[in-house]
Design brief:
Length: about 280
C-alpha cells in the first residue's frame, strides 16, 4: 500500500508518511484546538489540489499574501516578506501547487520560512522542499512537529535574526515558543509586526487581545500577557498583520498593544480585587 503524508482537515497539519491515516491529530486534541463536529477527518495534498487554489496578492509594498480558496482548515494566509537578500515566508498554509511555486519564484522565491506557532506548521516541509528553504521554529514547540525534517532549524532564546534585518521575537503566550516577526521597513518605515495570532487583532482596531485558546476562549494569565508585551516593547512598529486577510491594525499598533494589555489585565484581576472566586 502506498504511503502518504496525511493532512488533518481541521487544523491543516501534514503528518509524516504512513500507509493509513493517523489514529489521532495530536494538535487538534490539545485544548487550544478542537476535533470537528464530524470527528477526525483526513485528506491529502493531492486531494486538496483538485478543488482548491491559492490566491496571491500584494498586501503592501514588499509584502505579499498567499491564501487558499475556498478556505481550508483554520483559514490562515501566509505572508511573503520581499527582501533584497532573500524573501522570507512568514507562517505557512497547507496547499502548495505548481501555480503557487511558479508565481512565488517570479516574486523572488523563498530563502527562509519562519512560523509563529504549531497551528500554522501545516505542510511546511512541502514548502521547504519546493524552494530549498530552511524552516525556523522555536525549540520550545519542538514536540508539536508532526513531520520532522532536516530542514527544520530549532532556534532558542528570545530573538533570532533573519536576513534583511528581520527579527523573530519569542513572546510565548499562546504556545511556549509563540513567535512574532518584526519587519522594520514595513508600513513605510514605521515598522510592522507579523503576529500570526500571538497578538490578536480584534473587531475594535484600537485594541488587540491575547488568548491561550481562541476557539475555546481560554484566556492567558496576566503574567503571560505582560511577557508578550515586554517582548515586543523594544521594537518600533506601527502596524500589525494577523494570519487572516482582514485582520490588520493599520496604525498606532504599539499603543494598541500597551492599552490592550492594561485593559485585559485589569479585567482579569478585577475578580481578585472584588473577592469573587
Amino acid at each position: 500500500m502506498d504511503r502518504v503524508s496525511y493532512i488533518c482537515s481541521t487544523c491543516g497539519t501534514q503528518y509524516s508518511e504512513s500507509a493509513q491515516p493517523p489514529a489521532h491529530c495530536l494538535i487538534c486534541e490539545d485544548e487550544r484546538q478542537y476535533i470537528g463536529l464530524k470527528g477526525q477527518q483526513w485528506t491529502t495534498l493531492a486531494a486538496l489540489q483538485e478543488d482548491h487554489h491559492n490566491v496571491i496578492r500584494t498586501v503592501e509594498p514588499g509584502l505579499v499574501g498567499i491564501g487558499t480558496s475556498p478556505s481550508f482548515a483554520i483559514g490562515q494566509r501566509a505572508l511573503l516578506v520581499q527582501m533584497p537578500g532573500g524573501n522570507v515566508l512568514w507562517d505557512c498554509i497547507t496547499l502548495i501547487d505548481e501555480m503557487t511555486i511558479t508565481t512565488v519564484k517570479a516574486l523572488g522565491g523563498i530563502s527562509a520560512i519562519a512560523i509563529s506557532h504549531p497551528h500554522y506548521y501545516s505542510s511546511m516541509v512541502e514548502w521547504s522542499r519546493a524552494f530549498d528553504a530552511p524552516i525556523y521554529l522555536h525549540a520550545a514547540d519542538r514536540e508539536w512537529v508532526m513531520r520532522p525534517d532536516p530542514a527544520i532549524i530549532f532556534w532558542e532564546g528570545e530573538t533570532q535574526t533573519l536576513p534583511g534585518n528581520l527579527t523573530l521575537i519569542r513572546c510565548g503566550g499562546h504556545f511556549p515558543g509563540g513567535t512574532v516577526l518584526h519587519w522594520p521597513e514595513g508600513a513605510e518605515g514605521r515598522g510592522v509586526l507579523l503576529s500570526g495570532d500571538i497578538i490578536n487583532v480584534v473587531q475594535d482596531r484600537r485594541y488587540v487581545s491575547f488568548m491561550y485558546s481562541f476557539p475555546n476562549l481560554i484566556p492567558l494569565s496576566p503574567a503571560a500577557v505582560r511577557r508578550v508585551v515586554a517582548a515586543v516593547e523594544p521594537f518600533k512598529y506601527d502596524r500589525i498583520y494577523l494570519a487572516w486577510w482582514e485582520k490588520v491594525t493599520f496604525s498606532d499598533a504599539k499603543n494598541a498593544v500597551r492599552r490592550s494589555a492594561d485593559r485585559y489585565i485589569s479585567a482579569i484581576e478585577a475578580e481578585r480585587r472584588e473577592g469573587i472566586s
